[in-house]
Every structure is written in structure tokens, then in C-alpha cells.
Specification:
The chain is of the alpha/beta class. 31% of the residues lie in helices and 25% in strands. It has helices at residues 18-25, 34-47, 65-72, 83-91, 108-116, 127-139, 175-187, 208-227, 257-265, 271-285, 295-298, 331-335, 424-428; strands at residues 4-7, 10-13, 16-17, 29-33, 53-58, 77-80, 99-101, 121-124, 144-151, 173-174, 191-197, 232-234, 288-291, 302-313, 318-322, 341-343, 352-358, 367-375, 382-385, 406-411, 414-419. Strands 4, 14, 15, 16, 17, 18, 19, 20 and 21 form a nine-stranded mixed sheet that branches. An eight-stranded parallel β-barrel has the order 5-6-7-8-9-11-12-13, surrounded by four helices. A three-stranded antiparallel sheet has the order 1-2-3. β7 (99-101), α5 and β8 (121-124) form a beta-alpha-beta unit. The chain is globular and about 70 Å long. It binds pyridoxal-5'-phosphate (PLP). The site of pyridoxal-5'-phosphate has 17 residues, from α11.
């Protein structure tokens, strides 16, 4: 679910008219709904309530401190992939002892930092990394808690750039090799075996691959449980969200209550379905379960507000040129991903036209929609690019020397700036 709704022809986030937020902070502007993030967190948490579990929010999906603070106040842990993300969690008041540290290329500085902060676990992705962590822990006269990341070789049926659980991906250790790497780990004096980890990919919209992967690693985990004092099994993240038709789908009276209800009852993968699929095999394993959702918690909780700068009609196409670009939201260019685009003010009449919505960046890949039938927009109109809360701002860059956009957070009928728009001065800061 999400909290973006039309009221009297105006697009609201919770109790706030989005036009007001754009007028206050300018565009392009990311706006997040705190209520949506919390709702998703609590629904996942309660769907798993009869299982000993810890949600470790995947910080890389949206790492703004205000978002991390919201979640840490709920008791959430965090899945981090860099020293920078650990720093952010600490800056947001999060508990480092509820952090799992993933990633295939951890540096010495990052490992030392994470050891100093006593993270819950290093999720180790190779034998070389395991040996490296052991050595660094020895230098610090401590033991590094670890889980090996198992690559279960399942096809999650997702985009090739976000698939991580196939044997050809760079992630994890092959299922048939893991037991012997655990043996090596057990012999390392400065390694403490704490768990088993996996993560099969992202934007997975079917529950079956999750259950399949758990079932595939179950014999291994039961065997490991006999030998080592395992404390947890982390099933990773990857739960997909609805990008298309979640909101306004081009079906006639597109903001009607009926459409909204229809959209929320046709989710490809609900939290309930996900929990129902993974609970039985997890109960059979009998370990504490860690979950690392990123997109699920924040994806539908954010929009990118953008203003129409120009309309341009060519022989072949009509272009709507907006002030947000691929540097602000790269998902369409990187993953061919779909984002709904809706007007913040309900237009008079509802004539539709076939357009490309493009940004100002000097790349043909700089688009948000191609050949899409949208309600007619005109210069100066404000539009919302929906479901931009995950892998949006975090992937923004300064390409074309465009300052990073601002971010705002809505809570009930209040809103505030949670990251200032960059200035021109910020663009050259640090250059000498
Ligand atoms: C990216 C990532 C996640 C989160 O993925 P989502 O698809 O956003 O849920 C979880 N665990 C690991 C190890 C990751 O790399």
C-alpha cells in the first residue's frame, strides 16, 4: 500500500498537498511518506510474529538518515554494504550490533571500522575475504562474527542486473562448496561462525523462488547446525513491489476508488503471500531468521516531483521535457524499469496523448517514459514519478553538473526537508 491519493483533484501524500511541498523546496524533489515506510515495516514484522526474527533494512535502497532513524526507532536492524552506510546508521542513532555487513569487496578500513563497532555479522562472499577478515581480526585481537553467503543457484525470474542467486553471478559461495569453507572458517582462530546467509535477487514478484531457495539450502543448514553454534539464518531481501498499475493505470476514470481497490487487490506478491511461502520451510530449520528487505519498505513510499519545462513536437514524437533527469533517477535507463507518471493537479478534461517524458541530460537514455499514453501536460505543470523511494536518490549523481535534488519527508499533515538541494558551490567543493 502507499499513501499517495487524490483529494479534490489534488495529489496528496498522507495529509499534505504535494504542490505545497514542491513550492517550498523546488523541483526535482523526492518526497517520502513516513506512514508508508512504517506500515510496510510493521506488516512484515507482524506477518512473521510467530517466528524469532529480526528485520535488517537494506540501507542501500534509501539511506537518508531520517528514513534510517524512523526504522531504528522501531527496533529495526540494518543490512549495510559499505563503511559509509555503517556511518550513516550510527549517525541516525541505529544500533551497530544489529547490522549485517554484506558486499563482495570489503576494504581493510571498512572491516576494521565494522569490527570496532561490533557489527552482528560479516556476510562473507568468498574464501579470500574470509581469510582477510580473519587476519584483520587477529591484528585487533578480536574475533570477527561471520555468516557465509550461500549462492543457491535459483532463478528468481528478475532483471539480469538485479539477479544475484544464480551460479554465474559474482555473489556468494556455491552451495556444494559452502560446507568446506565453513570447515576452514572453524579452524580460523579469529573467526566466529554465527550464521548462514543468502540473497537471491531483487524485485522478485513471485513467492516460489524464495521458498525454493530456502528448501534448497535446508539440508546444508541442518548439517551445519550439528557442527557449529549457528545463531541465525538470513534469507536476504528482494521482495518486489508494484510499479505498474499500482495507482493510475490509464483505464478511463483512472483515479476512481474502484481502480485503487482493484490495484491493491492485484498485487503480484503481498507480504502475506511472502510470509506464507517462507514460514513453513523456516520453521523446519528452527533458527532465528534475519530478513533484509530494502525496496519493499521504501519503494512505494516515495515519489520524485518534477516540473514540465517544455513541450516539443517532432515529426515522429511528442516530448515532454521535465526538470528531473536520469542523474536524479536512473532506474529507467539502467534497468528499463517502469514508473507511473501522474499529474499533481487533476487536469481539466482528460485528453490523453502519446508522449515520451524525458529529462534535460545529454543522453538518449535520459527518459522516464517512452511512447506512453498520459494525460495531456503543459509547460509548468507538476508531475509525480511514482514508486521512486527505493534506488532513487541513492543512485543520483552530478552528471552534467546537475546539483543533487532535495528530499522531503511527510508525516501526517506535516512535512520537512530531510536533505537540502545541492548548490553550485557544492558541485566544485573538494576540487583543487
Ligand atoms: C540489495 C540487497 C538487499 C535488499 O534488496 P531489496 O531488493 O531492496 O529488498 C538485501 N540483501 C543484500 C545482501 C543486498 O545486496
Amino acid at each position: 500500500m502507499h499513501s499517495f491519493r487524490y483529494q479534490d483533484g489534488k495529489l496528496y501524500c498522507e495529509g499534505v498537498d504535494l504542490e505545497r511541498v514542491a513550492e517550498n523546496y523546488g523541483t526535482p524533489l523526492y518526497v517520502y511518506s513516513a506512514g508508508t515506510v512504517l506500515d510496510h515495516y510493521h506488516r512484515l514484522d507482524s506477518a512473521l510474529s510467530d517466528l524469532d526474527h529480526l528485520i535488517c533494512y537494506a540501507v542501500k535502497a534509501n539511506s537518508n538518515r531520517a528514513i534510517l532513524k524512523l526504522l531504528s526507532e522501531q527496533g529495526s536492524g540494518f543490512d549495510i554494504v559499505s563503511g559509509g552506510e555503517l556511518f550513516r546508521v550510527l549517525a541516525a542513532g541505529g544500533d551497530p550490533q544489529l547490522c549485517t555487513f554484506a558486499g563482495v569487496g570489503k576494504s581493510q578500513e571498512e572491516i576494521e571500522y565494522a569490527l570496532d563497532q561490533r557489527v552482528l555479522s560479516f556476510n562473507v562472499e568468498s574464501e579470500a575475504e574470509l581469510a582477510y577478515i580473519d587476519r584483520i581480526a587477529r591484528g585487533k585481537k578480536t574475533r570477527a562474527p561471520i555468516a557465509l553467503r550461500v549462492n543457491p543457484d535459483v532463478d528468481a525470474g528478475t532483471h539480469k542486473y538485479v539477479s544475484t542467486g544464480r551460479s554465474e553471478n559474482k555473489f556468494g559461495i556455491a552451495l556444494d562448496r559452502v560446507a568446506s569453507v565453513y570447515e576452514q572458517a572453524a579452524r580460523m582462530p579469529n573467526i566466529l561462525i554465527r550464521g548462514v546467509q543468502m540473497h537471491i535477487g531483487s524485485q522478485i514478484t513471485d513467492a516460489a523462488p524464495f521458498a525454493e531457495a530456502i528448501e534448497k539450502v535446508t539440508p546444508l543448514i541442518l548439517e551445519l547446525k550439528e557442527r557449529y553454534a549457528l545463531e541465525f539464518f538470513s534469507v536476504g531481501g528482494g521482495i518486489g513491489i508494484v510499479y505498474e498499475s499500482s495507482f493510475a493505470s490509464g483505464r478511463g476514470d483512472w483515479w476512481s476508488e474502484k481502480d485503487r481497490v482493484e490495484a491493491t487487490t492485484t498485487l503480484p506478491l503481498t507480504i502475506h503471500d511472502y510470509a506464507a511461502a517462507i514460514l513453513p520451510p523456516l520453521r523446519a530449520i528452527g533458527l532465528r531468521v534475519l530478513l533484509e528487505p530494502g525496496r519493499l519498505l521504501v519503494g512505494n513510499a516515495g515519489v520524485l516531483l518534477t516540473r514540465v519545462r517544455y513541450l516539443k513536437q517532432t515529426e515522429h514524437k511528442k516530448f515532454v521535457i521535465v526538470d528531473a533527469g536520469m542523474n536524479d533517477l536512473i532506474r529507467p535507463a539502467l534497468y528499463q524499469s517502469y514508473h507511473e507518471i501522474v499529474p499533481v493537479r487533476e487536469p481539466r478534461g482528460s485528453s490523453r496523448e502519446l508522449v515520451d517524458v524525458v529529462g534535460p541530460v545529454c543522453e538518449s537514455g535520459d527518459f522516464f517514459a517512452q511512447d506512453r499514453e498520459l494525460l495531456a501536460m503543459k509547460q509548468g505543470d507538476l508531475a509525480a514519478i511514482m514508486s521512486a523511494g527505493a534506488y532513487g536518490f541513492v543512485m543520483a549523481s552530478n552528471y552534467n553538473s546537475r546539483p543533487l535534488p532535495a528530499e522531503a519527508l511527510v508525516r501526517g499533515d506535516r512535512f520537512s526537508l530531510i536533505r537540502q538541494r545541492q548548490t553550485m558551490e557544492d558541485l566544485v567543493r573538494g576540487e583543487c
